[in-house]
Amino acid sequence: MQRRHLFALCALPVFAACASRMPSYTVTAAQLQAALAARFPRRQPVAGLAELELQAPRLRLLPEENRVGAELALQAFGGLLQRSYPGVLDVDFGLRYEAADRSLRATAVRLNVLRIDGLPPRAAAVLQGLGAALAGQALGEVVLHHLRDKDLALADGLGMQPGPITVTPQGLRIDFVPRAAP
């Protein structure tokens, strides 16, 4: 009888540690880069004044801010512009999970830099004024990753769902939380 109690007392911390560790899912930086690159190049109209062709972003993980940064090479052309101008769009964004299609999406896009080389000053001023809206249109709600059924199987079996998303130096960690009662 004493052995059973001793075993129970010794096993209790192990069970408590296991129970407190919620399952999680990791998306590597390489997976994010590949998924986002597949959605580019893309064209973005600029209020009927011009058009931007955005190339695939180079991502950088910003764990200290729990955000992801992206730098996109671009070409501005058409509309009121007489020729094509190269440039750079640099943004960072937060992340959210969309349960409807099991996707991770960019959200809360912040413009860091919009630079278009050689652009006439008036046109540059107009584009700078539209920069934040442009950044949001270009990357806001862009799908970065889809979770598959097998990715969610363990969590589903435990009655859990994706919760907080944490940016780490290696990629994204999605922690699972208990599913809300219907």
UniProtKB/TrEMBL annotation:
Record keywords: Signal
Domain of life (superkingdom): Bacteria
Signal sequence interval, chain numbering: 1-16
Gene3D superfamilies noted in UniProt: Uncharacterised protein PF07273, DUF1439
Protein name per Swiss-Prot or TrEMBL: DUF1439 domain-containing protein
The organism of origin for this protein: Paenacidovorax caeni
